[in-house]
Write a structure and sequence with these properties.
This protein is of the alpha/beta class and 234 residues long. The chain has 9 helices and 7 strands. It has a 7-stranded parallel beta sheet, sandwiched between helices. α1 crosses α9. The longest helix is centred in the middle third of the chain and has 26 residues.
Length: 234
């Protein structure tokens, strides 16, 4: 049987590439994002199911995980994958220059939503769940301007490690530097201390494409290496 795959932030960037890669393999994909992915929906009618949701709004996430539709997804899936992909790098600014609302938004989107979704999927389909947190090298190495982003990704790393110790099939996976709109935003942000460094990576062609990265992630997920270690890089 083909798996069921929940992907947050499937409307663009790496999330869209992950959704496309799973759809091409015949999976049933459930996309969670503020906006839909019209191109994918047109190419995969009946296979891609989209729910418009603000993942930075904890009550909205809770309403979804407590819904009959969510329970049905979990109960009907032979294998259920959860990709916690949606996230934000904002505020990309030094401590003391970060907007309070940006901090709250980042923590809700980068930490609260993934942990709520992980808890709910395991509650409903524990032995059939595979969870992938999309992490970052920023969780493991300091970057000026990324105290919030790095802390949020480090939280996912620790969550995966502790959940794995409980027997959950889970990994917090750092995919490398991917060429997405998020990267473009960082290069254009005058408040980001490493703006010039990331601009140089783009100019030198050192960014990975989203589609190539998604293919590498799927190959890892379908290999014996998946979740062998709860914190991993590709």
């Amino acid at each position: 049987m083909n798996p069921t795959v929940l992907i947050t932030g499937h409307s663009h960037g790496l999330g869209a590439a992950l959704a496309a890669a799973w759809l091409q393999r015949g999976a049933r994909v459930i996309g969670l994002a503020r906006s839909n992915n019209a191109a994918l929906a047109a190419n995969h009618p009946g296979q891609l199911h989209e729910t418009a949701i603000d993942l930075a709004d904890p009550p909205a996430v809770l309403a979804y995980t407590r819904s009959d539709a969510f329970r049905s997804i979990c109960q009907e899936a032979d294998t259920l994958w959860l990709f916690n992909n949606a996230g934000t790098v904002a505020p990309s600014a030094p401590l003391g220059a970060q907007a309070d609302d940006d901090i709250t938004h980042a923590l809700n989107l980068n930490i609260t939503a993934p942990l709520l979704l992980a808890n709910a999927t395991v509650a409903h389909a524990r032995d059939r769940v595979r969870i992938v947190h999309i992490s970052s090298g920023a969780a493991r190495k300091p970057y000026p301007g990324w105290s919030i982003y790095g802390a949020s990704k480090a939280a996912l790393d620790r969550h995966a490690a502790d959940a794995a110790a409980e027997g959950v099939r889970i990994v917090s996976l750092a995919p490398g530097v991917v060429d997405t709109a998020m990267q473009a935003g960082m290069r254009a942000d005058p408040a980001f201390p490493l703006r010039d460094q990331f601009a140089a990576l783009h100019a030198d062609g050192k960014l990975q494409s989203a589609s190539d990265t998604a293919a590498q992630i799927l190959a890892y997920c379908q290999s014996d290496a998946f979740a062998r270690e709860p914190i991993a890089d590709i």
